[in-house]
């Protein structure tokens, strides 16, 4: 399927998920029982399979911000990781116009460096040049609003402060396809509001955004469309109002 084809109503599809299945193989501890006869452990006996996504299909279009809701362990993060290509499918496929970015320059940041040094580092990890980052740094620092803490090592930050810094770095540029998985959850209310506004802005600038959240307020304020993942199945996909109402009624 060519993702450049015009979709329904002339909209351009950006991501197509086609009957996606994801399975994890996990070792259940304590199950790898030894055999008295050989003295060897049977390592395969404890292997259990978790069927995390069971045939999910959806199409995301340009300039859409799609909310992703569902209870813990329902498969939201699994779907998001599959979109980035980090989690290989058992079957089915994901087609995308470009590789989606999962918000979180986390892997690139260094706890012993200051917040300001990490802004540069995170920017380099996203493909900016050092010059571009020096230029962008003041506005990232302003958005993060961490005051003098920016001069302190990142390991001294609270989890909320770290999340603010990561969001601020990632949100500095527009992404074709951006995935935000619970990144707003630990910020305070003022920061969350600012971040939601920035997400709406990013969606108009370029791309398609997936916002995973347990905050129905965030989802309602930010997304016109929402998908509900329930036990690995796409339970509902439609206007946020309807989907959130159905999801809340189910709990
Ligand atoms: N790396 C992994 N190895 C094995 N099983 C996993 C792994 N990651 C997730 N799972 C399992 O897959 C299922 C879906 O998990 P997932 O993290 O996608 O849920 P989620 O909807 O993001 O939940 P939450 O709201 O808690 O973030 C769960 O049963 C979980 O235990
Ligand atoms: Mg998750």
UniProtKB/TrEMBL annotation:
Coiled coil: none annotated. Pfam families: ABC_tran (PF00005). One of its GO terms (molecular function) is ATP binding. Residues 38-249 form the ABC transporter domain. Gene3D superfamilies: P-loop containing nucleotide triphosphate hydrolases. Keywords: ATP-binding, Nucleotide-binding, Transport. PANTHER family: TEICHOIC ACIDS EXPORT ATP-BINDING PROTEIN TAGH. Belongs to the ABC transporter superfamily. This is ATP-binding cassette domain-containing protein. It comes from Tessaracoccus lacteus.
């Amino acid at each position: 399927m060519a993702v450049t084809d015009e979709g329904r109503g002339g909209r351009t599809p950006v991501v197509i998920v086609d009957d996606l299945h994801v399975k994890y193989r996990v070792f259940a501890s304590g199950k790898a029982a030894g055999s008295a006869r050989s003295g060897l452990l049977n390592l395969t006996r404890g292997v259990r399979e978790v069927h995390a996504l069971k045939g999910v299909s959806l199409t995301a279009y340009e300039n859409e911000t799609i909310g992703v809701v569902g209870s813990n362990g329902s498969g939201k993060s699994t779907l998001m990781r599959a979109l980035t290509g980090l989690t290989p499918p058992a079957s089915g496929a994901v087609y995308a116009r470009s590789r989606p970015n999962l918000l979180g320059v986390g892997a690139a940041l260094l706890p012993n460096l200051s917040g300001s040094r990490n802004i540069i580092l995170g920017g380099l990890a996203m493909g900016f040049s050092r010059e571009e980052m020096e230029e962008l740094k003041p506005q990232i620092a302003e958005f993060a609003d961490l005051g003098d803490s920016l001069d302190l090592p990142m390991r001294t930050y609270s989890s909320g402060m770290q999340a603010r810094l990561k969001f601020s770095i990632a949100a500095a540029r527009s992404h074709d396809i951006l995935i935000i998985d619970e990144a707003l959850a630990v910020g305070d209310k003022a920061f969350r509001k600012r971040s939601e506004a920035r997400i709406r802005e990013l969606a108009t600038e370029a791309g398609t955004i997936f916002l995973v959240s347990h905050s129905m307020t965030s989802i309602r304020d930010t997304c016109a469309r929402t998908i509900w993942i329930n036990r690995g199945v796409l339970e509902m996909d439609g206007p946020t109002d309807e989907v959130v109402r159905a999801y809340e009624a189910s709990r």
